[in-house]
Amino acid sequence: TQYLTNMTTRILYNADCPICNAEICHYQRYAIARGIPFGFDDLNTVDPAAYGVTADQAARRLHVLHDGQVVSGVDAFVVIWRMMPRYRPLAWIVSLPLILQMSRAIYDRVLAPILYRMHLRRLAQAAVSRPRILH
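Now predict its structure.
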């Protein structure tokens, strides 16, 4: 967990997911250009237990460690967006009670499950395409 103390806000994401990776890479470029103190952790190369989750739980939704607390899903996006000037209006809108409830429901019941199924499909394809060693 030592690497988690390097920055106040760290983002745990799945770099193997093309959609997740594209979005997080955009945030990373934006943050670097503006000196926003984000850290980025690919769940495939770090121990997600440092975030208090398993690799499977990490693959199911976005996680952010912010000021010592882990938040996930839409709440994690709101944390990220609040720190990025261009996205603050979006964070404010999504944080409105009714919109927050709807956003959480859509993310939790539709978007995250679709991305997770795509993740499982990629894992299965990788397992099938690995050469087997015959004894």
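The CA atoms of residues 11 and 37 lie 11 Å apart.
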